[in-house]
Design brief:
The structure holds 2 protein chains of 2 kinds. Chain A is of the alpha/beta class. Helix content of chain A is about 30%, strand content about 25%. Chain A folds into 2 domains: about 30-55 and about 70-80 and about 160-250, Rossmann fold (3-Layer(aba) Sandwich); about 85-155. Chain A has helices at about 45-50, 70-75, 95-100, 110-125, 140-155, 170-190, 200-205, 230-240; strands at about 5-15, 15-25, 30-35, 60-65, 80, 160-165, 190-195, 210-215, 215-220. The relative contact order of chain A is 0.18. Chain B has one domain (about 75-260). Chain B is about 85% helix and about 0% strand. The complex binds adenosine-5'-triphosphate (ATP) and magnesium ion (MG).
Chain lengths: ~250, ~260
């Protein structure tokens, strides 16, 4: 079966800094992949390459076995993305952010209907309807993150990327979000790629885990085999130990 | 040996600057070409265009009005003093009108709007760039050129002529106030003189200039914001560059347009 997403030998350098040095990765349809790895190893760059926001220097990215065609907007319509920093539009209110895709383009809902959907999505990420008319700058960091999450899932895309969905959230809210991501994969059949540093999230969200180190996928496999992999890099990472092959200064 | 090295370095630095300039011009040309191509293709965002017209045009009215008011007044004083040297004080109304409508209205209006609007556009779009809002737009299947750049460029090109028209009237008013109250002109004669002397071409050429300046202001703001470097420093640099390049381009374009309209 062709994988939903396939990355083949992706390379990317910024100036003299070689960030990705040959990433190979496959995600099956309806699977939830979690990417882990040290800070600055190129996890966000990997996801942005798939979306075409960053053009790799070398390599191939295939969605359903085909590269991105000429119609970029149609291509992107199947994706949802939660940015690491939220990236909410600060000139628009919260509900307009969440409903951004619904009120234009192929969906073209009325504003009233789109607002209803937005409020429903906000509820799913644990935000009350009062925030709908506030502006992003008036919200706390964790609330902004959740609005970003609501925006990513609003149009029920087939493929969803979450860049650190639980960073900056309290433990209870993290649990809610982990459950939500799991639900989206199981109930909506979406394919998900999540970046996280939170090992609780990894265990809650992942079908499959990939660890990026030194610009390559160091280890990948089912989440159940993570503890018994015998890979010293992965073991050091998941136990959070200062001792091991991964240097603390990078 | 040392001398040779110095000459070598010197030439290399000239070469580098020229190359950089060429690269910037090429980059900008491409930006303008892409913007123009998106202007004529759907979708367009009328709501955005309206919001930008309000922001760029309406809210610039006080700035442009005050600028032309004082300039019109000062112009009347200067021309009166200069005209007195060869007993030609009577030219005040006509020269104020010509100077205002053909030259000072559009140029001062353009420069004031460059300071106000280029800077704010560059800061806004630059911030959107560094906080990944532009990437977010793209992933939401919305082209940033269409959603951000085109509305600003259209709004500025359309509203600056309107602003300048208002500015022209206020500038002539400034001349009138000084002429009547300080220089002893009769009010009716002043107005009569102005109206008789001005021809349609004077006004139209001034407004055409204004449209071009509006285009320059918005394009420079968008271009520098869109290509802003990373972080707050990158945005600050983009803002400065937008205002400086917009101002210089306005003055250069003004010369070229004046040559085109009036040299024959
Ligand atoms: N647009 C860019 N220009 C230059 N360098 C960049 C750019 N984007 C990313 N980088 C560099 O690429 C490297 C990887 O960045 P990336 O954001 O992918 O890290 P990450 O793995 O997501 O880290 P974190 O877990 O801290 O978010 C970093 O060293 C960063 O400085
Ligand atoms: Mg990251």
């Amino acid at each position: 079966m062709t994988p939903k997403i396939a990355l083949r030998d992706i390379h990317k350098a910024f100036g003299s800094k070689h960030v990705l040095r040959g990433v190979d990765l496959e995600v099956a349809r309806g699977e939830s992949l979690v990417i882990i790895g040290g800070s600055g190893t190129g996890k966000s760059v990997t996801i942005k390459s798939i979306l075409g926001l960053i053009t790799p220097d070398k390599g191939e990215i295939l969605i359903d076995g085909a590269p991105m065609g000429r119609d970029r907007d149609a291509f992107l319509a199947q994706f949802g993305m939660l940015f690491q920093g939220g990236a909410l539009f600060d000139s628009l209110s919260v509900w307009q952010n969440v409903a951004f895709r619904l009120i234009r383009g192929r969906y073209k809902m009325t504003r009233e209907a789109a607002r209803e959907v937005a409020i429903e999505k906000l509820r799913r990420v644990g935000l009350s309807p009062d925030v709908a008319d506030q502006f992003p700058a008036e919200l706390s960091g964790g609330m902004q993150k959740r609005v970003g999450l609501a925006r990513a899932i609003a149009a029920e895309p087939e493929i969803i990327f979450f860049d650190e969905p639980t960073t900056g959230l309290d433990p209870i809210m993290s649990g809610v979000i982990n459950e939500l991501i799991r639900e989206i994969v199981v109930e909506m059949g979406a394919t998900a790629m999540t970046i996280t540093h939170d090992m609780t999230s990894v265990r809650a969200i992942a079908d499959k885990v990939a660890m990026i180190h030194n610009g390559k996928v160091r280890w990948s496999g089912p989440v159940g085999q993570m503890e018994t992999s015998g890979d010293p890099y992965l073991t050091q990472f998941i136990t959070g130990s200062a001792e091991g092959p991964i240097e603390a200064v990078r | 040996m040392v001398l040779l090295r110095l000459i070598d370095d010197f030439l290399a630095s000239i070469g580098r600057s020229v190359l950089n300039l060429c690269r910037a011009v090429g980059h900008l040309t491409l930006f303008v070409a892409v913007t123009l191509s998106h202007m004529v293709r759907t979708p367009i965002y009328p709501r955005e265009i309206g919001a930008q017209m309000l922001r760029i045009g309406y809210y610039s009215l006080p700035v442009v009005g005050l600028t032309t008011l004082f300039t019109g007044g000062a112009l009347a004083l200067q021309i009166y003093a200069g005209g007195a040297r060869f007993n030609a004080e009577a030219v005040v109304p006509s020269i104020v009108a010509i100077g205002m409508v053909r030259e000072l209205g559009p140029v001062l209006g353009g420069l004031m709007v460059a300071g106000r609007v280029s800077a704010s556009i560059a800061a806004e779009i630059g911030t959107m760039r560094v906080t990944e809002q532009i990437d977010a737009l793209t992933t939401l299947s919305t082209n940033p050129y269409k959603y951000l750049v085109v509305p600003r460029v259209v709004a500025a090109s359309v509203t600056l002529p309107m602003l300048v028209l208002v500015g022209d009237v206020i500038g002539v008013m400034g001349g009138y106030l000084v002429g009547v109250n300080r220089l002893g002109f009769s009010g009716v004669a002043y107005i009569q003189n102005t109206v008789d002397f001005l021809v349609l071409d004077d006004v139209v050429s001034g407004l055409a200039k204004a449209a071009v300046f509006g285009f320059i202001v918005a394009v420079m703001g968008c271009y520098h914001g869109y290509n802003s470097g990373r972080g707050a420093q990158g945005v600050g640099q983009a803002t400065t560059n937008a205002v400086v390049t917009a101002s210089i381009l306005i003055l250069a374009a003004n010369y070229v347009l004046t040559e085109v309209f009036f040299s024959a």
